[in-house]
Amino acid sequence: MENQEKRCENNYINLYVYLPNLGYRDSQGVFYTLNPACRHMGCSVSWNDADKTWDCHCHGSRYNARGEVILSPAVYGLLEKKVMEQKNTYSEAADMTRQEQGDNE
Q: Which of 11, 62, 85, 86 might form a disulfide with 71, Cβ 3.0–4.6 angstroms?
């Protein structure tokens, strides 16, 4: 499955938005997609450009750009998929990579 890149209008050069996933390129150029569902109760997260965080407006959970929890009530990071880039096209490279012990997802 191939995804088309869509840039957000913000100053964060490594932020990409996909439907239904979110995308992030780390400082070493590795590209990740994140599932936008908050791991607390499943609400959609949105990008906070001022703080460079993914924020859940339902219950206040916050995640850093890579999807790691920085503020509860969520205890697990956003689910993450690695993707491959070929000729400006991104496609899934692996199944979900972030798994917590006891997590059934």
A: 62
Give the pairing type, strands 89-92 and 62-63.
unpaired
Is the domain spanning 2-92 CATH 2.40.160.180? The answer is no
Per-residue pLDDT of the chain (105 residues; tens, 9 = 90+): 344 444 444 455 555 544 467 877 777 877 778 888 899 988 889 988 899 899 999 999 999 988 999 999 999 999 887 666 666 655 555 444 444 444 444
